[in-house]
Fold:
Amino acid sequence: MNKKTKRKKFYFSTLDLVYIALFAGIGIAIKPVTASISGIIRSIIPLPGGSLLGIVYTFIILTGSGLVKKTGAISLIGIIQAILVNLIGFGSHGGLSLITYTLPCFFSDFISYLTGKLNNIFSYILAGGAFNFFGALLVIFLYQRGIVTSLLILIGGGISFTMGAIGGALSYYAVNIIEEAI
Structure:
């Protein structure tokens, strides 16, 4: 075999990496809008803003990873977002953004792997619900301590899973529409 016919096969194609970077960037670009809405919601309900706006975050991340259709895409989007948030200075978590952005993505990636690698609506709903649920629980645990924490975990967890599941379902339909258009 000559060197021209023997090529190394990489896990993510160039198009996959473009999707991952694009959707990670969209997730960060939408941050100023969602942060202002989140501030209003937090003044009314003492839950993390992301738990209620999880539809948006989940939709963006799962749409990007749904177009890639490979295990690890959700995690890679989360890692890129965590790096961008720290470089740009968005968010109120500081260095903990590396944890609050990546761990929910790792968990969601694991759930999507167990349920079919984002090949059906069930896997999107569970991955989206798991992503938002784990993210909200992480933020409540790290930042909102006190007597009401256990109540917030119960209420926030249910709301977060529901919002993430809705975002997952919407991203399933968006991926199908995008794939038909391409």
Summary: Residues 15 and 68 are 8 Å apart (CA to CA). The chain has a mean pLDDT of 84.
